[in-house]
Amino acid sequence: MIRKLERPLAITMWDFSWLERRWPGAGYESWEEALDALQCRGYDAVRIDAYPHLLAADGDRDWELLPGWTTQQWGSPARVTVRIRENLVRFVSLCKERGLLVSLSTWFRQDADDVRLRITSPEGHAAAWKAVLDALARHGLLDAILFVDLCNEFSQSFWAPFLGPALGMTGELARSSPEVTDWMRRSIADLRGAYPGLDYCYSFFDELDGKGQDVSFMDLLEPHVWFTSFSDFYARVPYAYEKFDLTGYDHLVRNGERLYREDPAHWQAALARGIATVADWSRATGKPLVTTECWGVVDFKDWPGLDWGWVKELCELGTLSASATGRWAALATSNFCGPQFVGMWRDVAWHRRLTDAIHRGALPGGG
Length: 367
What we know:
Blueprint: E1 9-15, H1 17-20, H2 31-40, E2 45-49, H3 52-58, E3 63-65, E4 80-82, H4 85-97, E5 101-105, H5 122-138, E6 145-149, H6 163-167, H7 178-194, E7 200-201, E8 203-204, E9 222-223, E10 225-226, H8 233-236, H9 247-262, H10 264-285, E11 289-291, E12 294-295, H11 309-325, E13 328-331, H12 342-345, H13 348-360
Parallel strand pairs: 1-2, 1-13, 2-5, 5-6, 6-7, 8-9, 10-12, 11-13
Antiparallel strand pairs: 3-4
Helix pairs in contact: 3-5, 5-7, 10-11
């Protein structure tokens, strides 16, 4: 699908929130309303968690999911029960009816039985994804799929805890290592053998300079690019991705905007370096870029003492700068473009201005 685009796409990430945040006021109670609002803002595509490990284990049972955090607005802050197959088919069908494309990904959410740990090989990883594509194919929905990301931010252990044990390795694994590269290559090859008409990748948040990495077997690169990854901003806040206590957000309230406003040019330059780095990687490999998580801070929300203004300022700069490189086939305006982030979502004019700019950009050519 990436190779058939007529113009760059504006894409957003609805991760696992699309299915888990369905209580009153959570943002996704009515998929119809949420998708109509997304189109109103000018977006063409959405990236969601397809829960391949759970669908493959039993797509028709109710799964109890454990919260990955209580501090963030992605997903549920408490245990929640979901059913995968019928909801995935319905959601993708609603997208197709509206002409919206769907990027399938997974954060390998933890259920009460921790089924994700049953993945012990690249072939088993691919088999779980084949179950997802089989389900969508039976309903004639594969033409609504933009691409398949086999794991969010591989090879981070928080999202792929099965990888280290399966490889007999400990600690955080470098994605450029031969063992991890072989896992990615073999899993994509297996899946492409079953469904050759789709585009495949793994998404990344580190090792974004491409040095020493073989990505020849991927159809696109899906780097997640924030200015915080190319600067010491979080160290100076300080913010440490706290998942179950508010220490990090207390520091963001006290220091985040102040630190940015004291020297915005410095932090904007960090963002520019990040965008240039991944654009150069795209040119060197000849692979088009898609980015669905990006530009400002990684974590933010509607919260006392926090203002969206400076975050939107960075996100606008990042969107326009990335578009201007001509290397992005699809790009997001932030990773907060969903109805649960009210302060970002309600500024329809801001979204329209940026999605219009994305659509005016150039599609990537070769290297």
